[in-house]
Specification:
With about 250 residues, the protein is mainly alpha-helical. Helix content is about 55%, strand content about 10%. It folds into 2 domains: about 150 residues, no CATH class; about 90 residues, no CATH class. Strand 1 and strand 2 form a beta hairpin. Helix 1 runs antiparallel to helix 2, helix 8 packs antiparallel against helix 9 and helix 9 crosses helix 10.
Length: about 250
């Protein structure tokens, strides 16, 4: 499975799977369904209110409304919805830069401009889809030029890997100072563990464990506890300590 490394605020690289052609097509169909629904609503409202009496003007206004939405919808949504449209959000995918950072305004603009090539009548509207299907990072031409791709925002996670699963009431925390962490820190621990289970990349475990020991001022972990055990215990300790405060 193709992945893109996303560098978190803790400077830990997390591999996110790129979105497949199917997810992108369904997201696009959802967006087009929204366009169609808005136009139908507009026509119904205008028909009942009789605000436009001339049938030709009424038809032209509906076509213009659809055309404006079709042309500018993706660009405006990706700028103001952090790389997503409504369809992409439903499908849990988003546009990011290939370096793992949030795409810039210029990158959004470039990939939008290249829709002219990706979805041109000259390629029977299939140029972009074919490019996504055959490219290594599932990129259409606009993505390749802009240096972007589309990733899945929610990886498949088993229930036993959930970050904030409950622990037994009689559980005794090993590291009481886990209160120095916050929910985002523990979510990051969960992401590192989830990525390790999928990729067996032990470097992530070592890096995350090193950062946590430094942050919490832990000079020595209990005998027999390795870095993977340490992260699991930190997660359970945090869940227990924070549950006391609720």
């Amino acid at each position: 499975m193709e992945t893109v490394k996303v560098n978190t605020s803790q400077h830990i690289d997390i591999d996110y799977p790129v979105a497949g052609l199917g997810e992108r097509i369904v997201g696009k169909l959802i967006d087009h369904g929204i366009f169609f629904g808005v136009v139908v609503l507009y026509m119904v409202v205008m028909g009942f209110t009789k605000m436009i009496q001339n049938d030709s003007i009424f038809a032209i206004s509906a076509i213009v409304l659809y055309a404006v939405g079709f042309v500018f919808y993706d660009l405006l949504c990706e700028i103001f919805m952090n790389g997503q449209s409504i369809g992409k959000r439903v499908m849990k995918i988003k546009v990011i830069s290939l370096d793992g950072a949030q795409a810039s305004l210029g990158q959004y603009f470039i990939r939008w401009i290249f829709r002219i090539i990706d979805f041109s009548p000259l390629t029977a509207w299939l140029g972009g889809f074919i490019c996504v299907a055959v490219s290594e990072k599932k990129q259409r031409i606009g993505d390749i030029v802009a240096g972007t791709t589309v990733i899945k925002t929610v990886p498949n996670t088993k229930i036993h890997n959930i970050a904030f699963h409950p622990v037994a009431n009689d559980y005794v925390p090993t590291f009481e100072n886990v209160h120095l962490l916050n929910d985002r820190d523990i979510e990051l621990v969960h992401e590192v563990l989830s990525t390790y289970y999928k990729t067996q990349n032990a470097t992530l475990i070592f890096e995350m464990a090193n950062k946590l020991t430094n942050h919490l001022g832990i000079t020595q972990v209990p005998s027999g506890m390795n870095e993977l055990d340490f992260l699991r215990v930190i997660s359970m300790d945090y869940n227990q300590v924070t549950s006391r405060a609720v």
